[in-house]
Amino acid sequence: MRTELLTDALSYEEHPLYERIISDILDQGYSICDSFFEEPTVNSLREEIKTLYRHSELKKAGIGNKLNESVEKSIRGDYIQWIDEQKANAVEKGFFDRINAFKNYLNKTCFMGLLHQEFHYAVYPKGTFYKKHIDTFQNDDRRKLSLVCYLNDDSWKTSNGGELVLYPEGLPEVVVHPLPGRVVIFESQRLEHEVKAVIQDKRLSITGWLKTR
């Protein structure tokens, strides 16, 4: 019985995209991917976040975790809404199906022990930003991988700002423009990063974390 369980845990079909992401993270602490989600999923999520924002369903984001959270406009300016996976609509369910497949692959191939995930919609209106920080807390170190999926459409211009800037230790900074469907995955406990001020339009995304325990 134990042998069968071990064989099941180790059996998997190699996924080229996931393998590339794993290799990137091992080499440099982050990976940038423009084909993680299918285009129809990105388009539907974009309409979902636009509807939520239009109906004022998103709330001003705070800093810290839920046990120690405060709103500080001088540090971050985005508006968010957490996504409850148990209450997800059809569009969000497709998003979580992909996330769970990736999480399970990481657990089978890298033995990361990822058990949970948390994600929220995020809108950065013109003039907002998020100063340099790291995605972990003094009282909670469960976040292992951070993931951002950009939901802007093809009309988004790089001159609009809102870039994600990664600061890998010992390497040059990496500037990531929020292009439609682009996904960035990086180590939550190692990589400092910031969101530059949005100069025009609104920066749309889903942001979240893969967590242990």
TrEMBL record:
<feature type="domain" description="Fe2OG dioxygenase">
    <location>
        <begin position="110"/>
        <end position="212"/>
    </location>
</feature>
<protein>
    <submittedName>
        <fullName>2OG-Fe(II) oxygenase</fullName>
    </submittedName>
</protein>
<keyword id="KW-0408">Iron</keyword>
<keyword id="KW-0479">Metal-binding</keyword>
<dbReference type="GO" id="GO:0071456">
    <property type="term" value="P:cellular response to hypoxia"/>
</dbReference>
<dbReference type="InterPro" id="IPR044862">
    <property type="entry name" value="Pro_4_hyd_alph_FE2OG_OXY"/>
</dbReference>
<dbReference type="GO" id="GO:0031543">
    <property type="term" value="F:peptidyl-proline dioxygenase activity"/>
</dbReference>
<dbReference type="InterPro" id="IPR051559">
    <property type="entry name" value="HIF_prolyl_hydroxylases"/>
</dbReference>
<keyword id="KW-0223">Dioxygenase</keyword>
<dbReference type="InterPro" id="IPR005123">
    <property type="entry name" value="Oxoglu/Fe-dep_dioxygenase_dom"/>
</dbReference>
<dbReference type="GO" id="GO:0008198">
    <property type="term" value="F:ferrous iron binding"/>
</dbReference>
<dbReference type="Pfam" id="PF13640">
    <property type="entry name" value="2OG-FeII_Oxy_3"/>
</dbReference>
<dbReference type="GO" id="GO:0031418">
    <property type="term" value="F:L-ascorbic acid binding"/>
</dbReference>
<keyword id="KW-0847">Vitamin C</keyword>
<keyword id="KW-0560">Oxidoreductase</keyword>
<dbReference type="InterPro" id="IPR006620">
    <property type="entry name" value="Pro_4_hyd_alph"/>
</dbReference>
